[in-house]
Amino acid sequence: MADGTVSAEHARVIVAALDALPERVGPEVIDRAEVQLVEYAPQFRPGELRRLGRHILDVVAPEVAEGEAAKRLEAEEQTAREKCRLALRPVGDGSTRLTAMIPDDAAARLKTYLEAFTSPRKAKDAISGEEDKIPYPRKLGRAFCALLEHLDPKKLPAHGGDATTVMVTISYESLRAELATGGIIDADLDAGDNLSAEAIRRLACTAGIIPVVLGGKGEILDLGRTRRLFSPAQRKALAQRDKTCRAEGCTVPARWCEAHHLVPWSQGGNTDIDDAVLGCPHHHHLFHDPRYTHEILPNGDIRFHRRT
Question: What average pLDDT does this structure show over 135-145?
Answer without folding.
Answer: 88
